[in-house]
Amino acid sequence: MQIKDKVKAFHDGALSRRDMLNGLAAIGVGVAMAPILPRTARAAGSDAIYFTWGGYDIPDLFKPYIEKHGEAPSFATFGGSEEGLTKMRAGYVVDVSHPCNQAVPRWVATGLFQTADPSRLSNWSDVIPSLYELEGNMADGRPYMVPMEWGQTSVTYRTDLVDLQGEPESWGILWDERYKGRLGSLASAADAWWVGAIYAGVDFENMASDEAFEKIAAVMREQRPLIRTYTDETTSLEQALASGEMVAAMTWNESAAALKNQGLPVKFAAPKEGALTWVCGAMIHKEAPNIDLAHDIIDSLISTDTGKFLIGEYGYGHSNAKSFEAFSEEDLAAKGLSSNPNDILAAGKFQIPQSQEFETRMNQEFENIKAGF
Amino acid sequence: MVDATSLSEPELTESRPRGGRLATLFRRSESLRGYALLSPTLAVMALAMCAPTAMMVALSFWVQSGFDITMTFTLDNYAKVFTNPIFEALFLRTLMISGTCALATVLISYPMAYYVAFHVHRRKLAWVIMMTLPFWTSYLLRVFSWKVVLGYNGAINSGLMSLGLISEPLEFLLYSPEAVIITLAHAWAAFAILPIYVSLEKIDRSLLEAAADLGDGAVARFLRITLPLSMPGVIAALLLIFIPTFGDFVTPALVGGPDGMMLANIVQKMFGKLNDWPLGSALAISMMIIVSIMCGGLIWVTRQIKERAI
């Protein structure tokens, strides 16, 4: 029976039960096979998994990898690195993941990760040493986290909607009553809580003390009624800023760069209290099934191709010193970057690793505050 | 069924003595055959429902310490669930949101189901399928489309602004408990329409004629016959919507904003960045028990009312 006949028979109510079941079975088999087919077709290629933040799951970061293996690795994404860590602790095995400096010692302590072998990374010699010589990162000259990008958490604000009244830029924009309900914030405490610390004037060295904790909690509570939404999706914040729904939001460099590239009147503030600064990078899972591909992923992430993309499109600093050669100092300064990362990182407030107890306490308190307590 | 087997049983065993003991038992026992037929479902239920639930129950009595879970029995997690004011407030909010949502959905769906059951005479199936159209797209997609509709520059706001009814976009439309209710009510509408439609369809039309003959007007007919007879569908719809929306976390996470967070969002965070699986399990199980009690209560109350009516 031809398909057309079948449809007509169905229409006329003349389709026999057997024909009907045959048709349904065919559809069922087809649907069930659909997810299997592309997989087997793909099995010949690479299947290494890169577990990262949404926004880094794009082929543009993997030019050298694609040249070598024909296609980008598989991606899995998380909204915040704590969420990623929890998934991996629950048994999700990936090849490479993407933590930031303040999380490194805790990630290492889980025993879920292994060091990378610098001799297998062709770009290693160009990586700026100050970015990997971090607390708890090196073991026998091998890095756990191979630094990829560095940047800031700061305020992206609409220059046409926020009136600074001649004052210097400040984190205070996000605590300004005048903009109640038109401010946005990142949802993860790994950014927001630290910003609270800066705004409350807490020294990062004393971050874990009870007094500092109360002080930060107080400013976060003060801010909560002003915030329209807390989100981990940077796109939501960018769209809200673009439409004027929000006048200012806590973001990373990336959001400001994306909005600026669209020609919107936004600025990535250099708060007088100092921006929050960090370095993030790639870490290999202890049981990574494709250890060679894992190194290729990392080598691609620290290549100048990737660096130029990250600096140009996302406005992040890169770990490869040569990536900056394509940009003039003015270009970089306009993006809030410099070819010497220390200029920027030290000028801001650089995150310091904390204990797991602190991390849990901070996350719980911040969730309580977000929920209105 | 029972009569049939008790009659045929002796006959079966006597006339066919061959086969092992097991086979005989199998042939003799109605319930064993029933379980055999059910076995694929039972296996799936045991593996995919009972085992994880049992694990959750076990987990809820243990303690999270750092990255590990200590297997010492404790009731601390439940103590926290019932004493921490944050859970109480979130519970009340969740109850308000899913309760309102269930009521609103039933109120909206009833007229639709009524129309199709009583006033559509041709191609009823097509109508029913049309009403379940929202279900043809993914749940997530529907939530995102509501984000577009309710958003600051969304369909409703720009429509009202171009009509000159408002000068500033309405901000409560998105990122609020109301947004969660609207989105959920739309997403679950089919679950209300279908049971209500079925119960309306079953109503014997001659009852309505009889009522009319005895002098009842349209409104009285509806209140005295249609509504009471469609109550099973309404109750089923209320439960079908209340139970799943009580545990929904995607919708509030996407359109709820800080004031639209529900209990399930906290549970999800407990298993995520809050890193406290035992407390999350205790919370989830408490939710399950409370919802079961509430639904059991609703069913009990309606049964009482029904019996009194008879």
UniProtKB/TrEMBL annotation, chain A:
GO CC annotations on file: periplasmic space
Keywords on record: Membrane, Periplasm, Signal, Transmembrane, Transmembrane helix, Transport
Protein origin, superkingdom: Bacteria
Membrane-spanning residues: 20-37
A Gene Ontology biological process term: polyamine transport
GO molecular function, one term: polyamine binding
Gene3D superfamilies: Periplasmic binding protein-like II (3.40.190.10)
Location of this chain's protein in the cell: Periplasm
Protein name: Extracellular solute-binding protein
Organism: Marivibrio halodurans
